[in-house]
Amino acid sequence: MKILCADDDKDLLALIAFTLSQAGYLVISAGDGASAIRSFASESPDLVLLDINMPGASGFQVCETIRTQSRVPVMMLTVRGEEEDLVRALDLGADDYLTKPFSPRTLLARVKALLRRAGLENSAPLAAGRVQLDTQEHTVQVGTKEPVRLTKLELRLLQMLVANAGHTVSSDRLLMQVWGHKGAGDRQLLKQLVHRLRQKIEVEPAAPQMLQTVVGAGYKLIVD
Amino acid sequence: MKILCADDDKDLLALIAFTLSQAGYLVISAGDGASAIRSFASESPDLVLLDINMPGASGFQVCETIRTQSRVPVMMLTVRGEEEDLVRALDLGADDYLTKPFSPRTLLARVKALLRRAGLENSAPLAAGRVQLDTQEHTVQVGTKEPVRLTKLELRLLQMLVANAGHTVSSDRLLMQVWGHKGAGDRQLLKQLVHRLRQKIEVEPAAPQMLQTVVGAGYKLIVD
DNA sequence: GGGTCGTATAACCCCTTTATAACCGCGACA
DNA sequence: TGTCGCGGTTATAAAGGGGTTATACGACCC
Predict the structure, then answer these.
(1) 3-state secondary structure of A124
(2) Residue nearest to nucleotide D9 (CA to C1')
(3) Between chains, do A168 and B136 touch, taking CB under 8 Å as contact?
(4) Are strands A139-142 and A148-149 parallel, antiparallel or unpaired?
(5) Which residues contact A216 (CB under 8 A, 6 or more apart)?
(6) pLDDT tens, A20-49?
(7) Chain D nucleotides covered by protein, CB below 7 Å
(8) Distance in angstroms: CA B206, C1' C25
(9) Do B117 and A95 lie within an 8 Å CB cutoff?
(10) What confidence score (pLDDT) does residue A165 get?
(11) How far is B113 from chain A (nearest CA, A)?
(12) B-chain residues within 8 Å CB-CB of A117?
């Protein structure tokens, strides 16, 4: 699990890096906005921590840039009492924020919560109803059946569906999440991937019980 | 879009309800933990706002109960400085928190952000009388009848009518909104679409009760 | 080199959805 | 009385979405 942290306060950055790496995360540091954008492109982190006040490019700009190419979870760091900043950050697509000063413990709790929300958590296996995902082993287990091995793309697709179990997820969002920006618009990839996934997890792939199509909208995972 | 709000402070609850309903959300209120749990079971809201300090059952207990049966987004309300509470809430599966006091504007921004994260952002808060639109699932529910699946165009048409429930919407505006500029002037498309929609939502499509024609002007949705 | 595996590209079929067109009924109006 | 505009209905053609299958490409491992 890779986390990109951007802050111009060297001491704080070191503290964040220490806290997160202690917890088992791989931390990429950036001292200003411009290098944050570069690191984002080269490292494709799973989560981004952004200070709002930075030289180079502000957290806003970085967040905006990231959002044009990815839906990766973004958490903004802000000083207390700057409500305008907060609203603006959330409007730009940030997923959460944290007011300075914060304790390492709080930071960790929030990062974990955000990763869990995004369905990227790999510590505890994701589950919904009878469907149990193991992102470490790349397997799914349905009910008490034998675990089935999944490929990278299959895993990501199922992660999204499990994270939104019971609700329809639009094809566009799935494409975004599974393939990133490049896959946008390519329905073919998605329908093929869904087909392969059904072969693996459905009892009767031709009449899917769990991975259902919502015509004109997307797909959803039915859990009892 | 249905939001369940639980708080024992009647004034704050009223403020929250006012703010959210102004923004178009349907608000279900609960004054204590026990009734929050009951309401959750009966109403299946799309998002839950929970005060931590409540008589009956604390926000923690309510959150825990909800998490045993659902992954609905949960936002906790807490007083400033109670970091322990915050960490515990996030551990219990809450998705976000808000420290009191907060401004209506902040509340709205956070609720929207949480809905967006949960992938419910497209489900615009659309309901009028007995007509409930779900833009994510592409369905309408009339009263307590079974939800009916809608196509893209049907959904857009009904969205327009629901948004202007009780008022006539001109054919030109409907054409513009549903088809964009290309459809301008083509009455035929509209009357066909209206016909199909009536087949789906009217009890007696030949004598429409809800989707009524306003001769020479357009159509309107009658809600009780 | 020859395998396998995972993914991408493409073509095909079928059914749903949408567009085009014609016909019907009704009231307005000359 | 005839016909014109408007809306409802029905029929049919065209387009699009989704499922399926076949095949090609690249990476990786013998």
Answers:
(1) coil
(2) B195
(3) yes
(4) antiparallel
(5) B138, B151, B152
(6) 877 767 788 888 888 888 888 766 788 999
(7) 6-11, 17-22
(8) 14
(9) yes
(10) 83
(11) 6
(12) 95, 117
- Spanning CA of A175 to C1' of D25, the rounded length in angstroms is 21
At A165, the amino acid letter reads A
Spatial CB neighbours of B217, under 8 Å, sequence gap ≥ 6: B168, B170, B171
Q: How far apart are CA B153 and CA B159, in angstroms?
A: 10
Chain A residue nearest residue B154, CA to CA = A216
- Residue burial B90-114, b: 16+ Cβ < 10 Å; e: rest: bebbbbbbbeeebeeebbbbbbbbb
- The secondary structure of B176-195 as a DSSP string is HHHH-GGGTT-HHHHHHHHH
Cα–Cα distance for residue pair B183/B144, rounded to 1 Å? 34
Interatomic separation, CA of residue B127 and C1' of nucleotide D8, rounded (Å) = 28
Q: Which of A86, A103, A117 sits opposite B95 (nearest CB)?
A: A117
Is the N-terminal amide bond of B55 cis, ω within 30° of 0?
Answer: no
Q: Which of residues 163 to 222 on B have a Cβ less than 7 angstroms from any strand C atom?
A: 179, 183, 186, 188-189, 192-193, 196
Side-chain half-sphere CA neighbours of A67 within 13 A: 16
Q: Which residues contact B129 (CB under 8 A, 6 or more apart)?
A: B165, B223, B224
Name, of A154-163, B104-113, B181-190, the range with top average pLDDT: A154-163
B158 contact partners, CB below 8 Å, separation of at least 6: B131, B133, B140, B150, B197, B201, B221
Higher pLDDT, A133 or A197: A197
Strand partners, A28: A4
Helix axes A33-43, A59-69, angle to 10 degrees: 20
Residue A13 φ/ψ, nearest 5 degrees: -60, -40
Instruction: Considering all nucleic acid strands, name the nucleotide whose C1' atom is nearest to the C-alpha of residue B218.
Output: D7
- A&B contacts, CB < 8 Å: 65
Nucleotide nearest to B138 (CA to C1'): C17
Residues of A in contact with B136 (CB under 8 A): 167-168, 170, 217
> If 0-12 CB within 10 Å is exposed, 13-18 middle and 19+ buried, where does residue B50 land?
buried
- For the stretch A155-177, pLDDT in tens is 989 988 887 788 888 898 888 77
Protein A189 CA to nucleic acid C12 C1', in Å?
Answer: 16
Phi, psi (5° rounding) for residue B35? -70, -25
What DSSP state is assigned to residue A183?
Answer: G
